[in-house]
């Protein structure tokens, strides 16, 4: 259903294929963001998407809506208020006991019912575990196009131009859903900037009932077991990250990354090569198949700067690279470069910061 093209082509340019938006879909208007929340907290990716939704909607001259679904005893109105602060004009709220705790069936029904009734032209979700699961089933149920893991969203004509890496990250492609509505996309946390919050903004609430009972749902939520490791590693939203790569040579040397991170109060990141070598947990991988990060400071030690790593960290405010090879690709986009042996440079930095910070 989605049409891949770079440069983006308009409907008329597709030889022989019917890409004109059917008349009955032209009434689809507005940009929606699914507001993902869990245990009383909204996933910040929803607000990052709200900022993008605002930009897209302003280009289209339409309004932005948040979709908040959950149990009757959850603070859904407070989430709606936050949604306004981050750029929404309206919020669609669906409350039902069966929506307490995410399950695919009731959330898919709820979101598809809302879409069928209120007809948005664009629907955005976070590329999180929940967002990926929900987006796929909603797109399939609605019979529309979904572009996953986008790195850029734009408007071309009236169509959503959703850009994402392809061919192992070596190319970017722009995908448009030309003949179906809504146009759906998921975006990973931290790919988009967090918009400025404006608590003076307000909006209105549209409530809709789900119309499902517990016995309609096959999946049962028995208990919640937090993943201790996942909950302690907060790479995506860390302010400072010290990352290590294959240039560190072995697990013992990788401890130098930990030591600097400890002194700076930073998180530890790693390249895929370092993770595959067993020097760091999967959760610490930065890059195309790992986490996207946007820290204030990213220190890269023994990292070549391959494109698949770069796409995950180039949004950092300041990148400092330590590499023995003056021609390493990372020096092409690092703000500060230290040509040197990381096993010597890291302890010097650790000692210097320790003297100043402790
Ligand atoms: P290398 O490329 O081996 O670089 C090591 C660097 O260390 C070199 O530049 C070298 O000059 C330097 N060095 C050597 N000795 C020292 C020293 N003593 N001190 C300082 N520097 C030294 N990679 C990711 O990181 N994240 C991803 O999400 C990811 N996803 C991928 C997805 C796909 C589909 C594919 C095909 C690849 C992916 N990769 C990913 C792998 C990526 O292509 C690179 O192979 C990887 O990033 C390289 O890791 P590295 O920089 O640690 O190792």
Automatic annotation (TrEMBL):
UniProt domain Electron transfer flavoprotein alpha/beta-subunit N-terminal: residue ranges: 31-221
Family statement drawn from the similarity comment of this UniProt entry: Belongs to the ETF alpha-subunit/FixB family.
One matching Pfam family: ETF
UniProt entry tagged with the keyword Electron transport: yes
Keywords: Electron transport, FAD, Flavoprotein, Transport
InterPro entries registered for this protein in UniProt: DHS-like_NAD/FAD-binding_dom (IPR029035), ETF_a/b_N (IPR014730), ETF_a/FixB (IPR001308), ETF_alpha_N (IPR033947), ETF_asu_C (IPR014731), ETF_asu_C_CS (IPR018206), Rossmann-like_a/b/a_fold (IPR014729)
Domain of life: Bacteria
Protein's name in the database: Electron transfer flavoprotein subunit alpha/FixB family protein
Higher taxonomy: Bacteria, Pseudomonadati, Pseudomonadota, Betaproteobacteria, Burkholderiales
